[in-house]
Amino acid sequence: MTTTGATPQAGAARAGGYARGRRKREQILQAAITLFGEAGFHGTSLRDIAGAAGISHPGLLHHFPTKAAVLEALLEHRDAVDEADLEADRERGTDLFTALVHLMERNALRPAIVDLYTSVAAEATSADHPAHAYFERRYARTIALIVDELAARRDAGELVPGLDLETTARSLVAIMDGMQLQWLLARDLPRAQRPDMAATLGAYLDLILVTPPQDAPAP
Amino acid sequence: MTTTGATPQAGAARAGGYARGRRKREQILQAAITLFGEAGFHGTSLRDIAGAAGISHPGLLHHFPTKAAVLEALLEHRDAVDEADLEADRERGTDLFTALVHLMERNALRPAIVDLYTSVAAEATSADHPAHAYFERRYARTIALIVDELAARRDAGELVPGLDLETTARSLVAIMDGMQLQWLLARDLPRAQRPDMAATLGAYLDLILVTPPQDAPAP
């Protein structure tokens, strides 16, 4: 069903309502990113989020019935943005590892998202956390993706011989997570004194790859 | 001043009081380790800690006037235990890197401590967190210690040529932190399916060292 039969006025009014609803939702999610990043999921209340978003508590409940629903929407939103960026990068012919380095470069421009992810991932290791299953799936998927890429590199003779693929994939993810923590801890320092997340990931790739990705012959 | 002039009875009574006080303090810290690990510092109240330790709220305040004081005592306690273990290991002639692998092996036996450290470190990236300065100092000290060891290895011809020492030290710490997160996330899985934190750190050391530490000639 389309709405092409509606009068222009009704369509415009409805679009205005949708746009207003979307804008409110955006405001709520932006406020939640900052608060969850600072105080964690457990340390933030729905009232805190409503206050920071400048809406009433019942107004917030209209959009998100529970705090877990806010977190779920945030994580889904982050994943959608990340996957779109990664996909666009790969469509330009970038290999997975270089695309992950680019992801770290983008993360260095959005501390609030990195803070959210680091705080909530640490909390969500508890089995009863609402995002526990999400992080289990996310890590399993990411590690499987990297193991596949490592297997292809090994078969192409581009991997240091003898590496265990799962251990290598987990190390790569650990460097990304661990460097995000060190980078956040240094966020009050001048830019030149902060650790470089992308360069550190690149240094690990240099250790495990025999031929750097950008020098590999085109297939 | 010593207490050798006191009567044996008074001395025994005082020792009993001290022992009781120490025991209570231990109970409080044990309860706090579990709660901070599960819900983070912000997600835990002093009342939660008193309840889990089986003492009254005023009883808890007698030992620790604020929640930040509980956290500070916990982190100091963990550091004292870790440093004593590491020191004992090094006195047996173990090099720093192997001692860090042993630390990861010990951590695999104490999930509550690993959970506490991971959750609080993630929260403490915020400049206004009571443990922020503690973590800044801790990371600076650890990275400086590892950089010194890397420099000595480089001078002995035991390091892969061309590595940036600070980047390598930060990567090593990132692998320890990141693997703790992945290990915690998998803590409900059977032991064989959990990632091996110590082996993953060992795999990184194999990548950066030309001669494994245990094969190095005695000085």
Automatic annotation (TrEMBL), chains A, B:
Q: Where is the HTH tetR-type domain?
A: 22-82
Where the record puts its DNA-binding region(s)? 45-64
Q: Does DNA damage count among this protein's keywords?
A: no
The organism's superkingdom is given as: Bacteria
Entry-linked SUPFAM superfamilies: Homeodomain-like (SSF46689), Tetracyclin repressor-like, C-terminal domain (SSF48498)
A Pfam match is: TetR_C_6
A GO MF term? DNA binding
Query: Keywords, A to Z?
Result: DNA-binding, Repressor, Transcription, Transcription regulation
Q: Supply the name of the protein.
A: TetR/AcrR family transcriptional regulator
Q: Tell me which species this is from.
A: Isoptericola sediminis
